[in-house]
Amino acid sequence: MLAERSEHRGRGPRPAPEEAVAEARARGLLSTPGLRRAAEYIRENDARTLREQRELTEIPAPPFGERARALRMADLMRDSGLREVGMDAEGNVLGYLPGSESAPPVILSAHLDTVFPAGTDVRVRLDDDRLLGPGIGDDGRGLAALLTIARALVATEIPLAGPLLFVATVGEEGPGDLRGVRHLFRDGGPGTAARAFVSLDGAGIGRIVNVALGVRRYRISARGPGGHSWIDWGMPNPIHILAGMVSELTGLELPDDPATTLTVARWSGGTSINAIPREAWVELEVRSEDEDVLEDLDGRVRRMADIHHRRATVGNGRDRPRLGLTVDQLGRRPAGETRVETHLVRATVAATRAIGARAELTIASTDANIPMKLGIPAVTIGAGGEAGKAHTPDEWYRNAGGPEGVLRALLTVLLVDGGLSPLP
Question: How many helices (H) and strands (E) does the chain have?
Fold first, then answer.
């Protein structure tokens, strides 16, 4: 997802002679008859893109509950003219457009899931010039843009050098831990041979995520005998133990370079105000641009848990119950990078500038984390328009620059494909 402030630190592309060449070729490609027809198709079908964005958003897709939306997406992908549309074992929806050569595919993706639990009211309403609804931007916009790009390519018969693989992934958001894209890039999966991976996530026409923000997520659980708050006072108290850990964790000095964060996000436990709780848990997340920093923090969290566990049990008599404490990893998103001088990043920057937008290289945690870690060129970009309040019931989307975002994604893919205008 492309919504968290901590994940967006602007990084302007480094000037290079190759960028001017790439941008010139992007503008030249836009002036070809095929791309002019495609741009016209995108603009003329903008209302349909918005209808499908709204329709897909109104199909619930909570974590691990994306199937209904996936089935509808598969129908729309078939309708768009994609071939061999189907669902893989993890629930991703895939479809192809062939190229003139037998080459590794370029992958274009968007994610099906949302952060909202089952039962959330996902109806979309119109408020002046904005569409309001949970997931309308993240990633209803990406899914709708994916379909429009497929239709534009089919309708205009733009020749492709290599195949394009269109994928609607499951499990991009928090608890999903990138399970859909992990499956896509598993050993022997269709992603491992990809030339490049482009993820459409949310709105916007300028951001280019070329650095993968690494994430580790933990649940620390403590269990004791419990008891009466007066009679059994002195028994190991899970909340007291975890409170000590939280205090120590939030006091850790974190590096500014590479940028690193630690957030204690959720806490629960106990049954009554006059009882020592039998169990409690706390969930926390650490993020960094550097995998080594994440490994170091992982070790520190686990050592800290061991220390607090020992403190809680030292001095107990033989007849006193001991405290149980465990650290479970809930998620692991690898850090990575697609360097600015790569073919893919230069193509994305060129496409962005060619449509008249300012390219901003940035960092985020998205589906692109997995291919980046594997050394496969990958970026995540917005799919046009403007959006706000992502991951809240008040999420909104405004279609200012909507068609331009779709065109940027199409132009990026074609520049990477190289069938019409290869980059140097």
Answer: 11, 19
CATH of 214-333, one of 3.10.290.10, 3.40.50.620, 1.10.3720.10, 3.30.70.360: 3.30.70.360
**How far is residue 327 from each of residues 87, 99, 115, 268, 311, measured CA to CA in Å?**
35, 48, 24, 15, 16
Contact residues for 73 (Cβ-Cβ < 8 A; gap 6+): 56, 93, 112, 143, 168
Query: Do 214 and 298 contact (CB within 8 A), yes or no?
Result: no
Same fold, 5-212+335-417 and 214-333: no
Domain ranges of the chain: 5-212+335-417, 214-333
Residue 159 CA: distances (Å) to CA of 37, 99, 231:
13, 7, 80
Residues of the chain with pLDDT under 70: 1-16, 314-321, 419-424
Pairing outcome for strands 196-200 and 378-381: parallel
At position 201, the amino acid (one-letter code) is D
Torsion of CA 109, 182, 348, 49, to 10 degrees: 10
Q: Is the dihedral of CA 362, 364, 369, 374 positive or negative?
A: positive
What are the residues whose beta carbons fall under 8 Å from the beta carbon of 129, sequence distance 6 or more?
398, 399
> For residue 303, how many other CB atoms are within 10 A of its CB?
10
pLDDT at 420: 61
Q: How far apart are the first and last CA of the chain?
A: 31
Q: What pLDDT does 103 receive?
A: 85
Residue 343 near residue 412 (C-beta atoms within 8 A): no
Q: Could you tell me what percent of the chain has a pLDDT over 70? A: 93
Distances (CA, A) of 83 to 76, 97, 181, 419: 12, 6, 20, 20
Question: Closest Cα partner for 180 from 169, 165, 193?
Answer: 169
For residue 361, how far is the Cα from the chain centroid? 16
pLDDT digits (tens, 9 = 90+) for 155-196: 999 999 999 999 999 999 989 999 999 999 999 999 999 999
Return d(Cα 411, Cα 395) in angstroms, integer.
Answer: 28
- Using an 8 Å Cβ cutoff, are 276 and 223 in contact? no
Could you tell me the fold of the domain covering 5-212+335-417?
Aminopeptidase (3.40.630)
Dist. CA 14–CA 295, nearest whole Å: 30
> Which 3 state secondary structure label does DSSP give 32?
coil
